[in-house]
Amino acid sequence: MGKLGDMANKAKEMAKGHPDQADKGVAGAERVVDERTGNKYDAQTDRGADAVRRSYGSDGTTER
């Protein structure tokens, strides 16, 4: 696997070990995108954030 794939796998493993922190990061990234786009793509960012959370086993119920 290439370096990018290795980095993605390491990030996923770290997120699995620290889901609360990972949830905060995902929520922050989602918030920034929504702010910069004027919430134009809110539904898409919600689905994307949910997909990321599922990838490391979070249900997204931690405080955002």
TrEMBL record:
Listed Basic and acidic residues bias regions: 9-23, 31-53
Region (Disordered), start-end ranges: 1-64
Stored InterPro entries: Antitoxin_Rv0909/MT0933
Protein name: Kanamycin biosynthetic protein
Natural source organism: Streptomyces kanasensis
Taxonomic lineage from the root: Bacteria, Bacillati, Actinomycetota, Actinomycetes, Kitasatosporales
